[in-house]
Write a structure and sequence with these properties.
alpha+beta; Immunoglobulin-like; six-stranded mixed β-sheet; three-stranded antiparallel β-sheet; 3 helices; rod-shaped
Amino acid sequence: MTCFLRRNSSIITLLLLASIALAACNFPGFRVTPTPDVFATSAAATVAMRLTLAALGTQLPPPAQPTTPPPPPQPTTPTPTETGLPPTPTNTPTITVTEIPCDRASFVKDVTIPDGTDFAPGDNFTKTWRLKNTGSCTWTSGYSLIFDHGDSMGGPASKQLTAGTVAPGQTVDVSVDLTAPNSSGTYKGYWKLRNPSGVVFGIGSSGDVAFYVEIDVVQPTVTIELNHIIAECGS
C-alpha cells in the first residue's frame, strides 16, 4: 500500500511539472526552445497520466461516434374520408302536351229510335243522335251530316249539320229522316260528319268511326175478329 502511494505521488508530481511547463509556454514574450529532454518529459507525463487514470479505475470516455442524423420525416398522405355520394337526381317527368285535332266528335246517346226498334215495311221515322264536339274547331253551318255506308233507308246523301254553331265541348242533336225498307229484316246505316273543306271525320279516339242507326222490319200481324167470321158464315 505504501509503495502504491509513493508511486502515485511521483506521478502526480510529474503531472504538475508538465502542466507548469505547458502553461509557461503560453505567456507572451516567453519563448522556450524545446530540447529533447522537454519532449521526453512531456511524453513521460502523458504516459504517466494514462497509467494513473487506469490505476485509479478512471476510464477515459470512448471517442464520440459520429451521430447519423435521423431520416427526414416522410410526408403523410391524408387518408381520404369516405363521403356519401350525392343523391342521384330523379328524372323529372316530361309533360307531354297532346295536340287536340281540329275536327273530332264523340257519341253521347240515341235520342230517338234505339237500336233494334221494330218497324213495318214502308214506315217513316226520324233518327236523332246526340253528338259532342271534342275537337278544337267550332262546328258551323258549313258542317254536314253525310251517309257513309250500309243501308241508307231512303235518307239523303248529306244534310246540314246545324244552322248555328257548336263550340268545342258542346253537344248537338243531329237528325235525319228515314224510311223502313219493304222487306222484313234487320237494317243498319252508318253516318259521319264533314267539315267545310270536305274532310270527313267521325267519332272515337282516332276520329274515324261512324255512328249508325239500326232497325228491324217486320211484317204486320193480320188479326181476324172471330165474331165477324161467325156472322159471315151464318148469312
